[in-house]
Amino acid sequence: MSKKTKSNLRHYLCGEQGIAAMEFSMVFIPFIVSILFIAEMCRVVFISSALDLIIAESGHIAAITRAPENYQHYFNDEINKRMADWPLISRDVHVELSVAWCDNISAVIHHTCTTADASHKPLAFYQLTTDYQPLFFFFPVQSVIRELSRKILLVQEFQRETENDE
User: Considering only CA atoms, which of 100, 101, 99, 91 is closest in space to residue 130?
Assistant: First the structure.
């Protein structure tokens, strides 16, 4: 091997050209992925909090109504009014709503609440389930939970008043 070839080879192997680009690519890509992961977690927290607010406000308004025979319809109307105010949630998203009425806390714990009869049941157990589609998640679809569910237990004011009147 000639001296010039050895010099060129040594310069090529020992040179530090391109090391900045390699370091940049090794740091930048994980940094962007972590930023997108944090953004996705913030989005999940935002949607979860918004669902909590929607179901709590709708449940509260429905809980103080004096029309228990049309209760599920009234609750659904309140939910739909509030969902329209949250475009990140209400945009082509399937939402399932359910209300179950309970006599006491032990009925809630043992899942013995009824969905048919609200009379003389002072507790209402609300459940809202919605589909979840990640925006910034690059992992396989099978590794993502596709559904968010929120539950809340409220005291029905109209039921408490009728119990106190009796």
Answer: 91
163, 155 contact by CB (below 8 A): no
Burial degree of 73 (CB within 10 A; 0-12, 13-18, 19+): exposed
Query: Strand 147-155 and strand 95-102: pairing?
Result: unpaired
Residue owning tokens 């559904």? 147
Could you report the per-residue pLDDT of 25-56, keeping only the tens digit for each? Answer: 888 988 998 998 898 888 888 888 888 888 88
Please give the model's pTM, rounded to 2 decimal places: 0.67
How many CB atoms are located within 10 Å of the residue 58 CB?
25
- Round to whole Å and give the CA distance between 73 and 81: 12
Largest Cα separation within the chain, whole Å, is 109
Residue 125: which H helix or E strand, with range? strand 123-131
DSSP characters over 60-104: HHHHT-S-GGGHHHHHHHHHHHHHTT-HHHHSS--EEEEEEEESS
